[in-house]
Structures are given as structure tokens and as C-alpha cells.
Write a structure and sequence with these properties.
The protein is α/β, with parallel strands linked by helices. It has 2 domains: 14-220, DHBP synthase (Alpha-Beta Complex); 243-323, Threonylcarbamoyl-AMP synthase, C-terminal domain (Rossmann fold), CATH 3.40.50. The protein has 10 helices and 15 strands. The strands form 2 sheets. An 11-stranded mixed beta sheet has the order 1-8-2-3-7-4-6-5-9-10-11, with helices on both faces. The protein has a 4-stranded parallel beta sheet with strand order 12-15-13-14, covered by helices on one side. Magnesium ion (MG) is lined by residues 149-150, 158.
């Protein structure tokens, strides 16, 4: 069902965003598929944010070289509150700008039923309540939080029409809902509220001045202590335990992050990312298994080699960061 890997080459399915087609899209999402949807900012590539495999399929379809965290879309602020912790600043911005082109990065709720891959293993989550009627109907019908990055291949500009999406992602998507051109045509503004001072991570559809009118001055963009893109921090999501890469044997004091049909025997604990050697499946388990091994009581984590192509590149990128000296 999901995306690029398992489906044979086929022409993209583009349907007008009528209620019955939105209902079909909701079923696809509940089954773990990928749907491109218009929003007021840009088209998003949506999947059930609680489904690790579906979220991994987003990364596969976009061919992202690393796991950038994704925005989770919700129908309203009350539901958003189940997934993130809103302080007074977050509540104020949500009240003023939602539904709309503003994304808030807040601490993730511990019990939130969200894929760890959505947050790229971070303890924070980016939340947005879109104003557009198509994602609103879609979320109402499918009843799931929707992870959705812009619906373009990595490195290309964000799509603002269904045609852009089908040119860029085509057959990697189960269904493209055509709701016409996006009214704003620019991505949402991303504000990080996880630090003491609010920080503008990405300018977008809501002007900085409007946000500063609510909160006072924001910090802007990059700073070395709190990087804009968590993926750029060398030790971004690092486990507590030391990590040994490219392991082809394993000791009884080591927890093995395995890959493929024949992992070496004798580890303290073994979790296999994909016995079948499927990189999309491996990505879907990656952050979860790394955390579990970190808490297994072993003295070290040993990670088997992962092929350096497709999602393997993103997994290796994260493994190298996690193994970097601190
Ligand atoms: O308008 C939009 O925001 C569109 C529509 C579809 O909603 N989505 C979009 O998603 O532009 P994407 O993945 O292309 O951009 C999301 C941005 C990235 O810059 C990402 O690094 C940042 O949000 N982001 C997401 N989660 C984050 C987190 N936990 N911490 C910091 N930045 C985060
Ligand atoms: Mg994007």
C-alpha cells in the first residue's frame, strides 16, 4: 500500500478534492498509505503520524538523505494539546493564529501516540492546525494526526499545485487530492517554543511582526547552542551508551542493532531493524529500537552495517552522529 517501494511503476492518481474522494483518501491513510493534500500554504505529503511504517514511507517517497523532523497536522488546538505541551506562549499563538500558517515546536507529550520518526528521535514536536477545508475534512474523516512535509522530492521547491506534486513525486503517492492552487503558496512560519526565548526557525505565511506583536522580540534563525535544524548537530539524538558502528560480530555485553537475515549471535539483546533487509522497514523501527537498546542494560550498542542507499543513507547519517565523540 505505502508508496514508492512496493508499488509497481504506475501513473500518479490525481483526483479532485470532492467529499467522496477525500473519504477514499481517509481510508488510504488509515491503511498506512500516502496522500498528497492541498493546504493553505503548500501541498503536503500526508501519512498517519502514529504509524512508523507510514512515516518511513514519507521519507522514502521524498528521498530525504536524512530524517528531518516532520510537522504533525491536527484539526484544532484542543487535539493538538494531546500531542504537545503548550505553555502560555504556545497557547497564546495557537489562539491567535490557528487555524493557519503557523507551526509551533513544543515539547512532545510522553504518552503521545506518535511515531518517534516524526520527531526524528527528538523530545520535541512541530504542530500545526491548517485552515484549508481539504485537510480539515480529511482529518475529520480519518481521525488520525497527519504527518506532512511539503510534497516535493528532497531538494526541490515546495509544490503549490497538484501538478507540481505529480511531477515531483508521481507514483510514490497513493493518491493526490487536487484542491487547486494553494492560497498562500509559501510554507508555514515555524516558531520554536522549547527554549526560554521563542525562536523563529523558518519565516513563512505568518509574518514575524505579527508573532512579535503577541510575544515580544523573537530570536531569529541559527545559533550554535540551539541549532535550527536538529539534523545539523553532530550528536543529535545520541544514546547514553557508546555506539560501535559496522559491527560484524558481537559480545555478551553489547546490545545489537541488527539488519538483515543473519545477524551474529551472542548479544546481550538483539533488535533487528529488518530481517528482510528492507530499508523502509528499517527506518520505521530505527529511533524506537535505538532507544530500547539504550535502556536494555547492556554496556554498549553495536550496530551492523546498513547499505548506503535509499533510506539507508539517512539511517547511517543518524548512526554516525550518534557514534560521534562527545
Ligand atoms: O506549510 C507547511 O509547513 C507545509 C505544509 C504541508 O504544512 N509543511 C512543510 O513541512 O513545509 P516540511 O517538512 O517541508 O518543513 C518542516 C520544517 C522543517 O524545516 C523542519 O526542520 C521543521 O519544520 N521542524 C519540524 N519538526 C521540528 C522539530 N521538532 N524541531 C525543530 N524543527 C522542526
Ligand atoms: Mg519542505
Amino acid at each position: 500500500m505505502t508508496g514508492s517501494k512496493t508499488s509497481p511503476v504506475r501513473p500518479p492518481r490525481v483526483l479532485p478534492a470532492t467529499l467522496s474522494n477525500i473519504a477514499e483518501a481517509a481510508i488510504i491513510l488509515r491503511q498506512g498509505g500516502l496522500v498528497a493534500m492541498p493546504t493553505e500554504t503548500v501541498y503536503g505529503l500526508a501519512a498517519d503520524a502514529g504509524d512508523d511504517a507510514a512515516v518511513a514511507a514519507i521519507f522514502a517517497a521524498k528521498e530525504r538523505p536524512s530524517f528531518n523532523p516532520l510537522i504533525v497536522h491536527l484539526p484544532n488546538a484542543a487535539i493538538a494539546d494531546r500531542f504537545g505541551c503548550f505553555d502560555a506562549r504556545a497557547a497564546r499563538l495557537a489562539q491567535r493564529f490557528w487555524p493557519g500558517a503557523l507551526t509551533l515546536v513544543v515539547p512532545r507529550r510522553q504518552q503521545a501516540r506518535l511515531s518517534l520518526l516524526v520527531s526524528a528521535g527528538l523530545d520535541t514536536v512541530a504542530l500545526r492546525v491548517p485552515a484549508h477545508t481539504v485537510p480539515q475534512s480529511l482529518m475529520r474523516l480519518c481521525g488520525r494526526p497527519l504527518a506532512a512535509p511539503s510534497a516535493n522530492r528532497s531538494g526541490l521547491v515546495s509544490p503549490t499545485t497538484a501538478g507540481h506534486v505529480s511531477d515531483s513525486l508521481g507514483a510514490a503517492v497513493d493518491l493526490i487530492l487536487d484542491g487547486g492552487p494553494c492560497p498562500i503558496g509559501l510554507e508555514s512560519t515555524v516558531v520554536d517554543l522549547t527554549g526560554p526565548v521563542a525562536r523563529l526557525l523558518r519565516p513563512g505565511g505568518v509574518a514575524l511582526e505579527q508573532i512579535e506583536a503577541e510575544l515580544g522580540p523573537l530570536e531569529i534563525g541559527d545559533d550554535t547552542a540551539r541549532p535550527v535544524s536538529p539534523g545539523q548537530l553532530p550528536t543529535h539524538y545520541a544514546p547514553e551508551l557508546p555506539l560501535r558502528l559496522d559491527a560484524t560480530f558481537v559480545g555478551p555485553e553489547e546490545a545489537l542493532l541488527a539488519f538483515g537475515p543473519s545477524p551474529p549471535a551472542g548479544a546481550h539483546t538483539t533488535l533487528n531493524l529488518s530481517a528482510a533487509g528492507d530499508l523502509t522497514e528499517a527506518a520505521s523501527h530505527f529511533f524506537d529500537y535505538l532507544r530500547k537498546l539504550d535502556q536494555s542494560g547492556a554496556q554498549r550498542i553495536a550496530a551492523m552495517p546498513i547499505p548506503e542507499h535509499g533510506l539507508g543513507r539517512a539511517i547511517n547519517d543518524r548512526l554516525r552522529r550518534a557514534a560521534a565523540p562527545r
